[in-house]
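ok posting inputs for the histidyl-adenosine monophosphate job
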Amino acid sequence: MKITAPRGTFDILPEDALRWHWLEATIRRIFGYYGYQEIRTPVFEHTELFQRGIGTATDIVEKEMYTFNDKGGRSLTLRPEGTAPVVRSYVEHKLYSRGGITKLFYMGPMFRQERPQAGRFRQFHQFGVELLGTESPLADAEVIPVAVELYKELGLTDLEVLLNSIGCPACREEYQKELFSRLSSLRELCVSCQQRLQKNPMRLLDCKNPRCRELTEDVPQVTDYLCPACSEHLEKTLSFLDRAGIGYRLEPRLVRGFDYYTRTVFEVINSGLGAQNAVCGGGRYDHLVEECGGPPMPGVGFASGMERLLLTLEQQGKFAGFSSAPQVVLVVLDEKLAADGFELATGFRREGITTESCLEVKSLKAQLRAADKLQAKFVVILGEDEWKDGQVSVRRMADGKQWRVDREEVSRFIKDLSGREP
Ligand code: HAM
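and the output
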């Protein structure tokens, strides 16, 4: 029987890898402008990190983690997200002792055993930033444009920033009580919501079940329960965003599925993606560092799904001009010239000219057809007659024009011609 990739995972084939390289390079460049430095953490961690960090009553920890015991009987988990691992590393290496603010970014695969569908996978890739060391609302306001400006640079359109504040544990307690008293008598809530009601009533607002949404339509908004400090934090964050012209929509139902969040939470959505429309999610987490054994140290950040970004960009026609076509296809017409051809191709590559060559000597027609298929810009033909005169033929595929060029000059000739039309 044929063995396929596990459900919810996929291969990145050579033609797709180009897009990934471009996306990764753009992310690194833009994050560099904002002063974020890369951190790479292991793909698996002690299970306890996610239980403590994300929270045992969350969907991710309850239902979606790839958890296994290693041969030494330790419980390990493939990371479902990047924030808890980055904070673990920040604490373990005492990065806070360097003083001031720490700005980190990461990129890599994450794992969640969710039901696969368009834009939702079991192995997916995220990039994200974490800004640690300040409670200032300026930090909340600063991370949002990191995402927004990056998306602009990538050429994404039709995006919307949704924002809310879920307050601190103190103001949330009051709110959760209110929700519980209003909703606990409703028998029609879905099974998950019945459970959420017991553990974390606010998470009911996140339920996608239409009946649950109807039943919770008129519940009070969390922002009405914010303590003065949390209210002020929200107002300041919004005023900074307004000042910088960063658009957003206040979304009182946005609560996000991690227990570590405090105050600001946000998402960036793209309506073209259907149900899985969030390209980015983030927020503030003022107690996670302490939760992971560090000193009291606030943080804020976001993560963005790379597959969803690529999907959106593809829908918007971004990749039409993307190609891995070689500049040159080298055509050798005689077996005796194989070594000369090999030497010439090696020289081209040393000069930075992407070169393909047919590793078997075939007819000129067959090799030109292959060059056409590869969408090569030029074909360099090594025939016995030209070679005797120390020359090769260069054919420009766009218009079929052909030149005889001295072999010492051919790299320069191709480079000069590459910059010109057609
Ligand atoms: P999250 O909302 O769970 O947040 O994930 C962030 C983004 O990852 C989502 O908006 C989505 O684009 C992508 N994503 C999540 N799950 C999947 C999936 N199964 N398949 C494809 N893409 C997916 C976090 O992970 C937080 N750690 C974000 C954060 C960083 N908060 C503060 N700092």
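notes: Residues 14-33 form the longest helix (20 residues). The chain has two domains: 14-168+227-315, 328-420.
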